[in-house]
Amino acid sequence: MRNLLIHLEATSTLDSLLACAHLVARRFGSYVEGFYVGLGPSDIIAAGADGFVAAAPELVASIEREARERAERIRERFVRFWESLGVPLDGQGEGVRVRWREDPGAGAGLLGSVGRCYDLILVGRPGGGAGMAALESALFEAGRPILVVPPTPPESLGRHVVVAWNGSTESARTVALAMPFLAQAEQVTVLTVREGMVPGPDGAALAAALARHGLSVARHEVSRGEASVGETILAQCRAVGGDLLIKGAYTQSRLRQMIFGGATSHILHHTEVPVVMAN
Questions:
Q1: Does any domain span residue 29?
Q2: Per-residue pLDDT at 241 exceeds 70
Q3: What are the DSSP E strand ranges found in 76-156?
Q4: 68-81 confidence digits (pLDDT tens)
Q5: Residues 58 and 29 grouped into a single domain
Q6: Which one of 149, 173, 199 terminates a domain?
Q7: Per-residue pLDDT, 39
Q8: CA 149 vs CA 92, 135, 156, 168, 222: distances in Å
Q9: pLDDT above 70 coverage of the chain, percent
Q10: Would you say 38 and 103 are in contact if contact means Cβ atoms under 8 Å apart?
Q11: pTM to 2 decimals?
Q12: Sign of the dihedral through C-alpha 161, 185, 16, 111
């Protein structure tokens, strides 16, 4: 995880995004790029009165001005955060180093394309309709793992890693991409929810495979009872003291889950611990 990309936007997760980026970068000696993309043309159209922006150029100018001002406020917070830690802001040297990047007219869809050259993309937990476009872009277009960051900054990240395992291809791919975290964890817990399993290897098989990497692995299997699978995963992650959750996402053909529910959707919108996901 030597190359990190942070999607920066003016939401309640901004401070937590910066804190999580620092925790990851300090662990791996990472280069960190803060990326602000602002509003794209479709976003500006959507912000207009019924989409009739062409008839109101002053509205477009106002939206663009607000976007520039927002970008400057975020940049100032970004700079202050890293300067307070004594981290170089020119992206040069060894160890943790940082660089600011912005494309204020690109829109969140650019995140997936740019993110293909990074080891990990950090995005804020979506809430109230905000953040989903960036998350979808990163998850479906980048081909890289994402770290979904909750609004409250964690005290630690990656000491006790919980793997939410259901035997699926998506889970297997996510575990493989998250191996740098697993390799440095003090404890790994393989969590399976019986009602959430699909045809494939069980939790015991994954636990044995991870143990062969020399990891300290525990296995935790539960039933969901009256709760949903997503609720059960989050509750059990808290119960065992996990500070990082690894969870396979869904393929693009399962995008309906984001609208109609499912474990992934619940975790995306309610997690209080950072979550590594991959498609």
A1: yes
A2: yes
A3: 97-102, 120-124, 146-149
A4: 888 899 999 999 99
A5: yes
A6: 149
A7: 59
A8: 26, 11, 13, 23, 25
A9: 87
A10: yes
A11: 0.90
A12: negative
Task: Report which of 69, 133, 136, 73 is spatially closest to residue 107, judged by C-alpha positions.
Answer: 133
DSSP string, 1-65: --EEEEE--SSTTHHHHHHHHHHHHHHHT-EEEEEE-B--HHHHHHHSGGG-GGG-HHHHHHHHH
CB-CB contact of 247 with 166 (8 Å): no
Residue where a domain terminates, one of 84, 118, 149: 149
Q: Which of 139, 91, 86 is nearest to 111 (CA)?
A: 139
Average pLDDT over residues 153-164: 97
Token pair 């001005």: residue: 65
Q: Which two tokens stand for residue 31?
A: 């280069």
Query: Contact 202/172 with Cβ under 8 angstroms?
Result: no
- What count of other Cβ atoms lies within 10 Å of the Cβ of residue 251? 13
Read off the tokens for 94. 């060894």
DSSP state of 130: B
| DSSP-derived 3-state class of residue 277 | strand
What tokens were used for 149? 């960051």
Give me the CATH number covering residue 44.
Answer: 3.40.50.620
Length of the chain: 279
Q: Which helix (H) or strand (E) holds 70?
A: helix 57-84
| Type of residue at 165 | W
DSSP 190-252: EEEEGGG--SS--HHHHHHHHHTTT--EEEEEE--TTS-HHHHHHHHHHHHT-SEEEEE---G
